[in-house]
Protein 1
Amino acid sequence: MLELLDQPVWLLSLGGILGLLVGSFLNVVIYRLPVMMQTAWRDDCQSFLAEDSGVEQASTEERERFDLIKPDSHCPQCNSPIRAWQNIPVLSYLIQRGKCASCSAPISIRYPLVEATTALLTMFVLWQFGNSLQSAFAILLCWSLITLTMIDADHQLLPDSITLPLIWLGLIANSFGLFVDLNSAVWGAIAGYLSLWSVFWLFKLLTNKDGMGYGDFKLLAALGAWLGWKMLPLIIVLSSLVGAVLGSLMLLRKNQSQGTPIPFGPYLAVAGGIALFWGEYLVSAYLDYSGF
């Protein structure tokens, strides 16, 4: 509590408000970005098949615009537009009791949860790192991890449009030495990618199955670029432990077979967040306990 009081109230308040607003936008990204990617893939496939067969491709010019800005927010059940006062993060959900104001269709609780989580993490970063450039980059990392967690949970997909810029942002941040030195960041990105890449191909050679997606390699590479190579063992161990426990519980709860694919990205993201805030303490505690 004393450390919390060291940070200005206005800074934490602004961080919370900003987090709520960004969380509302992240909900849009989480829903729309995978749809945009699927549409782009479909168009590319149609274009390739049209060129290969000599058949003229159907025009997509009349297709309704669908991106992160358009169409405007609306109820998926009754298509009623969502007005500004109905789109206030968290508060609107509580006022409307989790229902559409027009048709009373239920609104998923995940929307206010994403908004609240984004706000709390933004405030926590400011509490930890203060009013600094380090905070600005750490906040961007947390926002990205929230987005990747939800998209991977929904679609088992980690978009390159987020993971690849995240690698470069980590290297840029550490060119100023914000989290680790640049040498550790570069080797963190390399080791992060190659470690899971090696596990993937070893598993594939032994079982002839894909054990994980390429997006997992890129996400661990990004975490290595942000936190350095020394944090990679901690991130891998934490994500594996959390994934094993929660994954088993999910399979039991849904009564699914062991062959059911489980997204690994959310566990990497959680482990990366833990390493960001408490990584050095956990590593030091382990070394002290083990006697190294």
Note: The chain has ten helices and no strands.
Protein 2
Amino acid sequence: MKTIAIVAPGAMGSALAGVLNYHHLEVLTLLDGRSFASAERAKKAGMMPVSAEELMQAEVLLSVVPPAFAISLAEQLAPALSAAAHKPLYVDCNAISEQTVDQVKTLITATGAGFVDGAIIGLPPASPQGSVPRLWFAGEQASQLKELENFGLQVSIMQAETGAASALKMSYAGINKGITLMCALMLINASRVGAADALLQQMEESQPALLARLRKSIPDMYSKAWRWAPEMEEIASLNAGELSGEALYQALATFCRQMAEDQQRDGDFVSLLDAFLQADQRKSQP
């Protein structure tokens, strides 16, 4: 493998590109319609901006966008894929449900390109030499991506059909982010009715590990709440109509939007959460 494409140069996409570029793999990207910040991230990561047609020079194309844009990116690239004599292997790495993956796969395979279902679990690498998230791949052509380990990434191939990697991502995010959101919701509720001090004392006694986790995960969630909302909606569609989780994750999506909107209008959600999470730290100060 000599050339890979990553669309788009967001926080995760550009960080992965930095690792690949550091390990001497050429990384192409699209900057049409992207912000100045995206262009700066791409430049810092050593990504080469090209047209959609030139993007087809890559051997593999990783779609790494917010879940709401997974289908629209496939639609945007479909004409170039159809026209290309050489078609890169299209890998959807987004936080989307199995149903959405099927829609993306239909769009891509109609062009004659290969398709792999992917999932990225972990934080963006802080540096090209730092720890990297794990990339899980499923589908008939998934084994072709094992070569990415030669360029600094952690790769796991699932012996499963398309949709399994996305289901893994949704399930993990439903647990990991779901815990953060549900706890944040309860902390706000307790704080507003005067139960914050008692709840903190109870958690210090019976849930110290969870409390330590929340002190990191809840503040980290503030700036990401707007992006987590569509992800919670994708999770809600898992086993829709069979299990009762749909309503739960739709409610968490609504809470994510409330968190984002509350911050825009300088509401009290963040201040209430910070007051709870930092309470014992203030007590320990002289």
Note: DSSP finds twelve helices and eight strands in the chain.
Protein 3
Amino acid sequence: MTRAKTGIPGFDALVDGGLPRGVSTMVVGPTGSGKSIFGLQYLYKGADLYDEPGVLVTLESRPQEVRRTATTFGWDLSRLEADGKFVIIDAASNRAGLPTSEKHALRRGFDLATLAEEIYTVVNESGAKRLTIDSFSALNLPSTTPSVVRGEVLRISALLNELGLTSLLISDTPPNGVLSQPTAGHHVAQGLVILHLDMTNLSLRRSIVVWKMRHTSHSLRWHELTIEGDGIHIGDPLT
């Protein structure tokens, strides 16, 4: 099993050296837990350190917001975009009913079929090896129908796997809860990483656990997650 190094300090040691290539992993957590930064850092470091082009499908933050966020960590997305190593698919503007000047965007209405077509085109043009969808929750899948959710997650995962992508699907959980039981969609993904945000001694603490990861051994312990000036770092196991 070949591995895709994430470029997130401390994380690869939790999954036997990196994410299994060609599979999709859901990264789940509440607002503020760091999941969007996790997905962006995975793409940026992949392109910058490992020469693996990446695609970000943004459904909630508009591309300029993403680029501004990146600069706070010293990540120059514009340079990678100019080199063809980083591509943003703007689906957020369409969902918000706003115009966009981005080269790659959904302009003919929003649905899964249109999104899949755009991903297919961009990946083939760019030779991308990595992809992040942020956030998968914004696809507004009918969560009251588990069989439909499983089917849609499976359909998207199958497309990404067919394209040979090692993908992260960012997803939300309630702001005050740890995921106690995987949902129908989580069961379909080959990997599931959970981020948590709780209050300890009157301060917020972030943590992370690899809930499942097919085709590899992995840590089952919660670890400290910190967001520093250069991005996310994974620290020691929590006690």
Note: Residues 178 and 237 are 17 Å apart (CA to CA).
Protein 4
Amino acid sequence: MTADIAPGVASVEASRGRLVRGLAARLGVLDHVALALLLVLAAALVAPALLTPFGPLAADKAHILAAPSAQHWLGTDYLGRDVWSRIVYGARATLLGSAVAVVVGLVVGTALGILAATAGGVVDAVISRVVDALLSIPGLLLAMVVVVSLGFGSLNAAIAVGVSSVATFTRVMRSEALTVKNLTFVEASGHIGGRPRYVLRRHILPNSFSAVLSLSSLQFGIAILWISALSFLGYGAPPPQPEWGLLVSEGRQYITSSSWLVIAPSVAIALTVWAINRLSSTARMGHDHG
């Protein structure tokens, strides 16, 4: 029996090795740039002090609205605070908030999608109609309504963005689960005595979840944009906390005289979303070819 299992394990390991090598071979110059950006963001999350000698709240009255220089790479703001430091430390609030939003949307959307696909009937009809209603509302507008109901703040903004993405996750999960549910081997599992919970846990959920996980990477980029937008509008992180959307909002008053206050955090948002989408797209292509 051990001899029979060993070739199968070796085959799986070889397949994974080919997939990794194929993915590495497909990485282009832009993919390496995106990977480098994500590594910098990871460092900003774990140890931001390694990337800058200044604190995010440290004010320097001698260098108020100073232009970018060797000392202050991206200049300083209206209180003399280093803009690069505030972007580095602000990455934690923006990215962690986006992660919370994706987890909320993923967990709730997956549960509702599975419930609709497996229960069917009235349950499926009700969930589908609610999803259709939510999808008819622009996501950012829905997030604004939710955050106003919950109250302002970073965590509430993240939850609001997550709630606004639940309908998208639900629709994808329901569609995938219905497809898998009607496959021959899944039906056969039920006919030979497999209990509904076993069939759901063993067959339907594992074979439906890959599409939802692929959607998560796209939603992560959208969550960054929406959380930044909520902070820009004053619904998210309160000042003086460094958060990318809030930095753009604070800098817009000085856009004509000190444009770096708006450009720097805006570029950070754009590059982060681009890097995430770029690598997730490359990973999906590698998986499809594998």
Note: Residues 1-10 have pLDDT under 50 and may be disordered.
